[in-house]
Amino acid sequence: HSLLQKDSISEEDLCCPVCQEVFRDPVVLSCSHSFCKDCLKRWWREKQTQDCPVCKRRSSKVDPPCNLVLKKLCESFLQERDQRSSEDLCSLHSEKLKLFCLDHQQPVCLVCLHSVTHKNHSFSPIDEAAEQHKKELQETLESLKKKLKSLEKVKVKFDQTADHIKVQARHTERQIKEQFKKLHQFLEEEEEARMAALREEEEQKSQMMKEKMEALSREITLTLSSLTTRSF
Which residues form the B box-type domain (predicted)? Predict the structure, then answer.
C-alpha cells in the first residue's frame, strides 16, 4: 500500500523551505523544522551560523538526525509521481493509449475507439503511427537541412560580396585622399607662386614710385634754389 493518500498530503507539504523542492535526505532540527541535508549545510555555511532557516532558533547539533519518516514519504511520493508521468493514459478513460486516430491526429484508447467522438474514424496502432510520424519528421528534417545548406552557401556569397565592397571602398577612399593631397599640394604651390609674383610686382612698383619721388624731390629742390637766386 502507498504511504500517500491522494487528498491527504500534497507536494507542497513535502517541499524543503530552502530549495522549494521535494526533500532529499531530510534532517530534522530540535525546533521540529526539517530541511534537505545539503540545503541546511549550505545555508549554515553561507550565513556562518547554526540557526534554523525558518524560526531562527539556534541548533545545538552540527549534524542533525535524519527524518526517516519524512524521507520514506518523499521517496514514496517521487516514485508514484515518476510512475504516473511514465504511463501514457487516456485523459478521458484512464486506459492505455494503444491506437492513433487518423482523423483527429491524436492518440486514443480502446474505449475511445467505440465512442461517438470517433465514430466512423480511421485508426492505426500507435506504434505504427509513431513510426510514420517519425518518418515524416525525418523527411521534413532532411528537407530543412538541405534548405539550411543552400542558405549557408548564399550567406557565404553575401559575405564575400560584402568583403569585396569593403575592399573596393577602402581602395576608392585611398585614391580620393591621394587625389585631394595632390590637389592641395598644387593649390599650395600655386598660392606660393602667385604670392611671390605679387610681392615682386609690389617691389617693382614701390621702386618705381621711389625713383619718381626722388626725381620729384630733386626737381623741387632745383625750383626752390632757382627761386632763391632770383629773389636776391
Answer: 85-126
